[in-house]
């Protein structure tokens, strides 16, 4: 069993600031938080080793790159015990960008990003439906993403 990492106020401040702007240099972040850039570096390394910080990502406007279809797929499994094997197969489909094991109507819920409806149809019909263990699916097409945000990490 993993031991729980004791995060102090500085760790939470670093997480909060970097979630807001991951491009900030360690030196600039250190100035903002009144510690050295070296201290920031050591703390970030500690948070990475603990698995709390899992890297940084580039935020890209997918529509500008021609990806016009975002859909959500509710997946019904034949048996819940098939989750691991189905998840492994779904991970091989590059258009699926997020997958969750859920309670409620669906066994799994996936987010999929495609260039167009033809690509979505291909993924649904030619890839997803051929996976053993999937009983059926229900697809929801997103008309607009109003916002996306990180959870606020409080520093108190």
Automatic annotation (TrEMBL):
Ion transport: is it a keyword of this entry? no
A cellular component annotation (GO) from this entry? cytosol
The record ties this protein, via Pfam families, to: AsnC_trans_reg, HTH_24
Which PROSITE patterns has this protein been placed in? HTH_ASNC_2
Query: SMART domains, from UniProt?
Result: HTH_ASNC
Judging by the UniProt lineage, the source's domain of life is Bacteria
- Residue intervals of the HTH asnC-type domain: 7-68
Q: Quote one Gene Ontology molecular function term.
A: sequence-specific DNA binding
Annotated GO biological processes are: response to amino acid
Q: What protein name does the entry list?
A: Transcriptional regulator
Q: Name the InterPro entries for this protein.
A: AsnC-type_HTH_dom, Dimeric_a/b-barrel, Tscrpt_reg_AsnC-like, Tscrpt_reg_AsnC/Lrp_C, WH-like_DNA-bd_sf, WH_DNA-bd_sf
* UniProt keyword annotations, A-Z: DNA-binding, Transcription, Transcription regulation
